[in-house]
Every structure is written in structure tokens, then in C-alpha cells.
Design a protein that fits this description.
Elements: E1 3-10, E2 13-22, H1 28-40, E3 45-56, H2 58-73, E4 77-81, H3 85-93, E5 101-103, H4 106-111
Helix pairs in contact: 1-2
Length: 114
């Protein structure tokens, strides 16, 4: 199964819904392009929903960190939503969980942006 990435708005928050496997061979570059596109259009509040992601590799984490850096440098914030146990374990192993604010509840995550 490939990856499906859709973007929607909840007020002034851009929500990026990702579904499938994100790897170097499929999905990683698309995720990075989506985040750069949001940043280039002035998006400052970005929530990446990984609830339907079955697997991601280090290239996907790299794209998330790159997107986080780009958006933060433009005065914005990128947060993550709904990491399953397998994905959360990978974030812990790579210490990427110390970079991102991670939420389990979409409404609470949207409210957390100030």
C-alpha cells in the first residue's frame, strides 16, 4: 500500500492527514513537499495526523523534522497527532519525540495552538 496525503483546514490550522506507509521509496518526498507547500503559502499552524500511518522510516522522520524547522523558522509551529505504538516507538528510539509536541486528541491539539 502506498501513501495518501490530504490537507484540510480547521480554522487557521492546516491539518495534514497521512494514510499508509511513509518510506524513502514512497511517500516521504510527498510529505516533505506538502509541508513545504503549506509553509510557502504562509501556514503557521500545522498538525500532521499520523493516525492511519502503519509504518514510517527514517526518511519520513527527516522530512517531518525538515518541515518542523522550516515552519518554526517562519514563526509557526508543527505538531503531530495520533501516533500508533509502532510509530511512537520509532520516535522514542530516534529521540524525535523530544522535538515534536505530540497529541492524541485532534480537538485538543487544535486548541493547543496559540
Amino acid at each position: 500500500m502506498g501513501v495518501k496525503i490530504t490537507t484540510r483546514s480547521l480554522g487557521d490550522v492546516s491539518v495534514v492527514d497521512v494514510c499508509g506507509r511513509i518510506t524513502l521509496s514512497g511517500g516521504s518526498a510527498e510529505l516533505g513537499e506538502t509541508l513545504r507547500d503549506i509553509a510557502s503559502k504562509g501556514g503557521k499552524k500545522v498538525l500532521v495526523n499520523l493516525g492511519e500511518v502503519s509504518y514510517l522510516d527514517s526518511s519520513a522522520i527527516g522530512e517531518l523534522i525538515s518541515g518542523f524547522t522550516t515552519i518554526t523558522n517562519r514563526g509557526g509551529n508543527l505538531k503531530l497527532l495520533s501516533l500508533n505504538q509502532r510509530v511512537m516507538d520509532l520516535f522514542r528510539i530516534t529521540k524525535s519525540n523530544t522535538i515534536f509536541e505530540i497529541h492524541d486528541d485532534e480537538a485538543a491539539a487544535v486548541r493547543s495552538f496559540v
